[in-house]
Design goal:
14 helices, Metallo-beta-lactamase, Chain A
Length: about 450
């Protein structure tokens, strides 16, 4: 029984996660994410898939972040009619993220057409909100640690990965062989999320390498947050935090609530300005079984900021000169309301733009954290005179040592380990460590590479 594995994304980049497993005519797509960052990557979202969408029998999702799930509405639009298997947390989060993604693409296209800065006439969304809502009908939730047949001869099991609500390490079993996909590994001893599940064995392993070449700063995140906030408040500035709506926003609220309660920061007004992040935060409070916080702790943390849902209320934040803290999606400043806030706050040296995690190459976040003096937003260049910082210790991704610690719990070496979901330097650095420290056979696959699994 022949099995092939094709890498259709998340190689040479941290986005566009897609792995195609083919076994005796059955086709299953593991993750179905959007490419983000550099234009040449984003153009892949518009290019035809190497396989016809209608020929895919099922999709299995590790978690809900758009670089793993955001292509699903387009896949369905192109003819996919199979089931989409994931955990309940992932299904609920996708019900928030995917329609929001379609809505934002519609609005971005309308804005580009109205202001005439797009090279396309007319600018069109990749998919719209209706496409996303239609795709949600295909989702089927599977409990953690429960084996489910997903195609002829192929079953899947979801194990907690930490990272965000619903995130899973996925074990695929077929013909007596076990393929393990790490998805995005969470961090051991996270303030909010559970540790990633140890895995004893796998015949083949696909492991992420987002931070494969670096370590997170071993510093108290609350101390770092307090320093930035106090420094900015002292000069009468606003702290704008571009944040991933799912996971990072909730962790930030937890730390900010603790700092405020301990009076370690000024009593500045705080705003969570993202309908998607608000919905994800309410979901976080309902799923206390999937994180370290008690129901009470989660609810207290979620109440520390004022929720901003309406566009007019969001715009009012830019007109208000009073120092404040604004948490607004997206985490790499690629779209959404945070762009309007950046246009207002980035030119003023009293303010701080505070990122809180990995910034993929080609994003505004990567440019700003690398010292860019201006960034392009809505067709015009905006000067960056505000302080810019990035608190990597708040990342929900395991760093290089933490990935190696998770790998070290395997009782035997996989036949082959594929290192993916990383920039080239990060993936190769992790490959080198796996070969040198564990003695495992290991490779970094190329985009669209296909390999036969014996």
């Amino acid at each position: 029984m022949g099995i092939s594995l094709s890498f259709l994304g998340a190689v040479g980049t941290v986005t566009g996660s897609k792995y195609l497993i083919e076994i005796d005519g059955a086709r299953v797509l593991l993750d179905c994410g959007l490419f983000q960052g550099f234009k040449q990557l984003r153009l892949r979202n518009w290019a035809p898939l190497p396989v016809a969408a209608k020929s895919i029998d099922a999709v299995v999702l590790t978690h809900a972040h758009l670089d793993h799930s955001g292509y699903i509405p387009l896949l369905v639009k192109k003819g996919f009619r199979g089931p989409i298997y994931c955990t309940e947390g992932t299904r609920e989060l996708c019900a928030i993220l995917l329609p929001d993604s379609g809505y934002l693409q519609e609005k971005d296209a309308e804005f580009a057409n109205r202001h005439g800065f797009s090279k396309h006439r007319p600018a069109l969304p990749l998919y719209d909100q209706a496409d996303a809502e239609a795709a949600l009908e295909r989702f089927s939730a599977v409990p953690f640690d429960t084996e489910r047949t997903v195609a002829d001869g192929l079953s899947a099991r979801f194990l907690p990965a930490g990272h965000i609500l619903g995130a899973a390490i996925v074990e695929l079993s077929c013909a007596g062989r076990r393929l393990v996909f790490s998805g995005d590994l969470g961090r051991p001893n996270s303030a909010t999320m559970l540790d990633p599940t140890p895995i004893a064995s796998a015949d083949y392993l696909v492991v992420e390498s987002t931070y494969g070449d670096r370590l997170h700063e071993r510093r108290d995140p609350e101390e770092a947050l307090a320093e930035v906030i106090n420094r900015t408040a002292a000069r009468g500035g606003t702290i704008l935090i571009p944040s991933f709506a799912v996971g990072r926003a909730q962790t930030l609220l937890y730390h900010l609530q603790r700092l405020k309660a301990a009076k370690r920061i000024p009593d500045l007004p705080m705003y969570l300005d993202s309908p998607m992040a608000i919905d994800a935060t309410e979901l976080f409070c309902r799923h206390a079984e999937e994180h370290r916080l008690s129901q009470h702790q989660a609810e207290v943390a979620c109440r520390v900021a004022r929720y901003v849902r309406e566009p007019q209320e969001s715009k009012a934040l830019d007109r208000e000169a009073m120092p404040k803290i604004i948490i607004s999606a997206s985490g790499m400043a690629t779209g959404g309301r945070v762009l309007h806030h950046l246009k207002r706050f980035a030119p003023d040296p009293r303010n701080t733009i505070l990122f809180a995690g990995f910034q993929a190459g080609g994003t505004r976040g990567a440019a700003m954290t690398s010292g860019a003096e201006r960034v392009k937003i809505h067709g015009e260049y905006v000067p960056v005179r505000a302080e810019v910082d990035n608190l990597h210790m708040l990342s929900a991704h395991a760093d290089a040592d933490e990935i190696m610690g998770w790998l070290g719990k395997f009782e035997r070496a996989p036949r082959m380990t594929f290192v993916t979901h990383g920039e080239p330097a990060a993936s190769d650095a992790l490959r080198h460590r796996i070969e040198e420290e564990l003695g495992w056979p290991c490779t970094v696959p190329e985009y669209r590479e296909e390999t036969e699994l014996a």
